[in-house]
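> @MW can you paste both from yesterday?
MW: sure, first one:
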Amino acid sequence: MPRHSQTHAMPISIAKASAIAAFIAAVCCGSSVAIAQQSDELQRVKPGELQSFEDISVERISPHELSEIAPGLGRSSIATAETVDLPRPLNRQEMDRLREVATSRTVLIIALIMPARPYRQEYMVYNGHATWVETQGAGPALITTADWLADAEHIFLVDDATQVALHKHGVALATEHRVGATRPSSQGIEGLFKNDRDVLIELRATRREPNLNLAHLEFVSEDAAVRTTPEAGWPLHDMSRPAPPMLFSYSPERSELIEPVQVLDARTLDEAYQFYIPNSSTAILGAPIFSNSGRLVALNALRHPERGTIGLAVPPGALSRFVESLSGD
């Protein structure tokens, strides 16, 4: 019986083997075209060119080298951008540092304006900003936009002591009311001048350029200038470089916030406002608009009178020209 079983087992195994061999042959024949194609591609790699993964190396390149590696890649202004200008989110440390810079170079100022008759003859208080800007060899200069100071009888820099005095006499700042104008009681301004005039840091607009909507502010007191002027101001954006990829705005009214800013399409503006850069910043009246690398790009001047969500900023060309004129004094 065992021998009988073995004699029948052999033909079954041979049959299975034959079937498997036939199946493999059919598959191989059916995929001969794919194998041939793979062989053709493999032949494109020259022998000895790549033996193992250990032969692969990674080389870091700078963006300005891209045009040398791949001629014609992109526009030259983009291909030559420095790494620091490439758009990327700022980390927490970078944002904190940018906030520190903005805080040291941006101040609150108030302007007292007497309305024309027959309006009630009590001072209107306008709340705005001024920024410290680097000049060529002359130290930082305090600059703001000019239009809102056109009729100002008094201009004051607001430091901590001034804030206390203003609050004491009921003169509201924007943090207590809103950005723009407020009308305190006449006793408030009179009381401020009578009892706390010594804490006020008075400024005067020594130069106004209405066509550029910019004004240069100087201290009435030399001692106040020494105490208040920072060691460094905003460096201006280099006009020969591409536009910064990220812009921010800052106001001491919201000292904890660095506000991202978007530049809007200038072609949508009325002809009367074509001088300005439309933007999304909520801070106006001289608030700085600066780049991620800490350079001053523009000063936000006013809100669009018909579109309240749009700010209008003095452009970098006008700002650069004005600062250059201060250096020549």
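MW: second:
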Amino acid sequence: MSLSLSSGGLATTNPSSNVVASSNPSAPNQRTTRPIVTGTSVIGIVYKDGIMLAADTLCSYGSMAKYKDARRLKVINSGCVLGGGGEYSDFQAVCDLLERNSLENHCTSSDSLYQDDDDEGAPEIWSYLRAIMYNRRNKMNPLWNDLIIGGYDKVKKEPFLGLVDKIGTAYTDNILATGFGSYLAIPILREKWRPDLEEGEARALLEDCMRVLFYRDCRALNRIQIAKVEMADDGKALVSEPYEIETNWDSATFVDPKGGLEGDGGW
């Protein structure tokens, strides 16, 4: 048997076609052959007292800015947050899977033995998602997401930040980004990041990166969320309500006519 994110739970495999099918034999095969409604960059950094993630709230349908309140940061448990770029429905499926696993842990554990601090730490969730993404890739039915997992490492007693992409590639670092953030935000983070960043400095740095992405990425929005996990008390995960960052369009490259034309620069 193999893992599946379908509502039926475990999937069955057709030996003749090697295709993952639903547990309902009459249901058609369903695959994400290409992303349809997508979110863009997620950025994560480790700072002095924990980890912090940032993402905007826009999901695009092709080139159309379709949903402007699509929240792509989620608290998994008290010590872990998840951010996802790519196909939004696949991100929702990943979140549903993690919620079902958490509920199963609560329901199958003895009340006298189960404690809140028995929740999986961020490294365990990162490793689990790596296996899920690699499994789906091998079934030629990938979850079209790049995921950043941040939180508290209960074994090493330190912050944890890891990334998993849609084919199961996984790695950890002190600064991570998906989408266009890999090209536009990582250079800023490499220049300005340091291990002893205070919380306010970390937030300002992430806002600077999200501002640049809004200027330069056609699928980004200036309405963002910030998530963090504090190291105090073995982790405390929070996600902010969406808010708009300030932008400045007074730059000469935004104001002056383009191409030497008298007008808005259009042809």
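> thanks! The chain has a mean pLDDT of 84.
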